[in-house]
Amino acid sequence: MSSIQDVARLAGVSKTLVSRVINGQTGVSEKSREKILQAMRELQYRPNGIARSLVLKRTNTIGVALDSLCEPYFFELIEGIEQVVAQTDYDVVFCSGRNSKKLKNRSIQYFAQGRTDGVIIYGSKLDDEEIILQLQKSGFPFVVVENDLANLQINNIVVDNEFGAGQAVDHLIACGCRRIIHMSGNRDVRAALDRQNGFIVAMQRRGFTIHSDMLVRADFSIEGSYEATRDFFHRCPAAERPDGIFCSSDKTAYGTILALQEMGIRVPKDVMIVGFDDDRPPMLEVRLPKLTTLSQPLRDMGSAAVRLLLEELEGESAHKRRLVFYPQLIVRETTRPR
């Protein structure tokens, strides 16, 4: 493998001049530059990326920390990130927290210790705020996606979950539902809390009185919402059963539908269901009615996150920005007008 010394020797120049050319610096005549580039081509020399980053104090790499890389739901977000990065001279590295706070924090710290120039953090777990505050104090460039931290001066990409919940409630009412409940998501996730709050606000706006039985504590898993649904319907008198359910996620909705089917309750004839996320596992879609849901513009959110981070890295903007995206109601088979 050729070295910088080999390039300097073949070009008849000093190592310093070769280093200047490799790092795109000035102070090299056009004649010497061409001799150096020709020598690099002949020797098939490839600059040491680590050494180059130490000289330039930049890696030309962006890190992305996700709660999980195994969920197909995140593929559109990843695609949006990659589409923008591909148009630049940056590379991108993805890390999965495997749904562990410790592992996710380790990934973020790894990125912030000189391995990348900036990091995109996806997720809205409440305990993410600790590491985000640390990054803010350090001055390391980053963008937070999904976790709505309006109280912090940071670059923030969010989806308006309360707006989406309102769309779900309005749609169920328009379909004729009058006894509507909410199957909540994980209590340690800000998106779940925002969607529940959006449900409450929308119902009150429509003149409904909210009581505790209308807020069923579930989670973002199929198994958890299946159990929560069975427990709720076994406790609920038949005359008081809901005719509409807004679920905090699509996985919550799928668990709810499976439990209802097992109990002989028909969707959408007896109960209408609206989910959130447009997360469509192929195996479940074959077995269950296609889900009416709120679709998040994840590809656009991923692209916007990269652009926001690049603005900071390239010194184009010193101001932190909060960009809000809105989910879109997608009507399928689990709701219909009565």
Q: How do you describe this structure in short?
A:
This protein is α/β, with parallel strands linked by helices and 338 residues long. The protein is 45% helix and 15% strand.
What does this structure look like?
The chain is α/β, with parallel strands linked by helices and 338 residues long. It contains 13 helices and 12 strands. The chain has a 6-stranded parallel beta sheet with strand order 2-1-3-4-5-11, with helices on both faces. Strands 7-6-8-9 form a 4-stranded parallel beta sheet, sandwiched between helices. It has a two-stranded antiparallel ribbon with strand order 10-12. Helix 7 links the parallel strand 3 and strand 4. The protein is elongated and about 90 Å long. The model has no long low-confidence stretch (mean pLDDT 92).
